[in-house]
Amino acid sequence: MKALVLHGKGDVRAESVPDPTPQDAHSALVKVERAAICGSDLHLYHGDVPAAPGLVVGHEFVGEVMEVGSEVTNIRTGDHVMVSGVIGCGQCKRCLNGEVVRCERKQTRVFGMAPELPGGQAEAVAVPGAEHAIRRIPEGVSVEQAVLLTDILPTGYFGARNADIEPGETVVVIGAGPVGLLALLSAQLFGPARVLVVDRIPERLALAAELGGIPVSAEHADSVIAEMTNEQGADRIIEAVGSDATILKAIEWVRAAGTVSVVGVNTSPAVPFPMIHALMKDLTFRVGLVPVPELWSALIPLVACGRLQPERVFTHRMGLSEGAEAYRRFNAREDGILKVLLDPSR
Ligand SMILES: [Zn+2]
Ligand SMILES: [Zn+2]
């Protein structure tokens, strides 16, 4: 089959690889209909996360079930399904509850990050623990929305849920990339009075404004946040960039007894953490990897009923065969690119 393969830093190619084969009775084979490129794929592309050459990348994909193991009862051949980008063993108590990041057998894995779980920027994927990693795409949810339900919409929602937002509060989202924008939409579900969105890129700030946020240019953010909160700081901060600098800004911008919720991916083993400020602020600081299947029960109805319309984040639609160019443009942030959807049939 055709797949996007990482050969090294800045080198992703569309090429032929062996067809995937389901491993056991708990697995399924999914023919990919659409896949997306994620900001966290760029960590591999940049070489920040070590990867063996030859890795099939991608963890955001939906498709049609081609084969299903005898132990998998919730899906059938021919179903159109979404697949959680992160999975666990699929059989322990935590995994059965969708909490795949807390897998008791410590088998939490992300598709397309290691050779033992090849990714979804491909024509097909073998999905282990399919019963808990896969959900049929219900009526009212489009294919593009389903792709976002495999990772970044749950990630944005997880960031908002972890921020402890109460009605009437002021929330700051740092980063107006796809995850930040979906954190903005998710934060609005919890009833804040206003959500400020901080970024450097004007097009992204414009989209944040269209989606109901108050755009704040990063260069003025210190003074704008201070002014808007009477020098008290924002009640809640959702950090959706993942750089050391933005994590430090989150701690600086939050009010006393406020919450910082980090969903930006920072792969550093040691971020400088201003303990004294955290201590003096009585800070709540949360960071975690999203338990995608656990959040589907909230998010699928919100999307199906139109309360959440996450598909606005897709700006580019390309063929899988154009994968090398898609990565190059996404990495270079060319041409207002925000989120790329890939079609494996072209
Ligand atoms: Zn992702
Ligand atoms: Zn498990």
Could you give the topology of this structure?
Blueprint: E1 2-8, E2 11-16, E3 28-36, H1 41-46, E4 55-56, E5 60-68, E6 80-83, E7 86-87, H2 93-96, E8 109-110, E9 124-127, H3 130-133, E10 134-136, H4 143-149, H5 152-161, E11 170-174, H6 178-187, E12 194-199, H7 202-210, E13 214-217, H8 221-228, E14 234-239, H9 244-253, E15 254-262, H10 275-281, E16 284-287, H11 292-304, E17 316-319, H12 323-332, E18 340-343
Parallel strand pairs: 11-12, 11-14, 12-13, 14-15, 15-16, 17-18
Antiparallel strand pairs: 1-2, 1-4, 3-5, 3-9, 3-18, 5-6, 6-10, 7-8
Helix pairs in contact: 5-6, 5-11
Question: Your description of this structure?
Answer:
The protein is an alpha/beta fold and 346 residues long. The protein has two domains: 2-151 and 291-343, Quinone Oxidoreductase, Chain A, domain 1 (Alpha-Beta Complex), CATH 3.90.180.10; 155-287, 3-Layer(aba) Sandwich (Rossmann fold), CATH 3.40.50.720. The chain has twelve helices and 18 strands. It has helices at 41-46, 93-96, 130-133, 143-149, 152-161, 178-187, 202-210, 221-228, 244-253, 275-281, 292-304, 323-332; strands at residues 2-8, 11-16, 28-36, 55-56, 60-68, 80-83, 86-87, 109-110, 124-127, 134-136, 170-174, 194-199, 214-217, 234-239, 254-262, 284-287, 316-319, 340-343. The strands form four sheets. Strands 3, 5, 6, 9, 10, 17 and 18 form a seven-stranded mixed sheet that branches. A six-stranded parallel sheet has the order 13-12-11-14-15-16, sandwiched between helices. The radius of gyration is 20 Å and the shape is globular. The model has no long low-confidence stretch (mean pLDDT 96). The structure holds zinc ion (ZN) (2 copies). The site of one zinc ion has 9 residues, from helix 2.
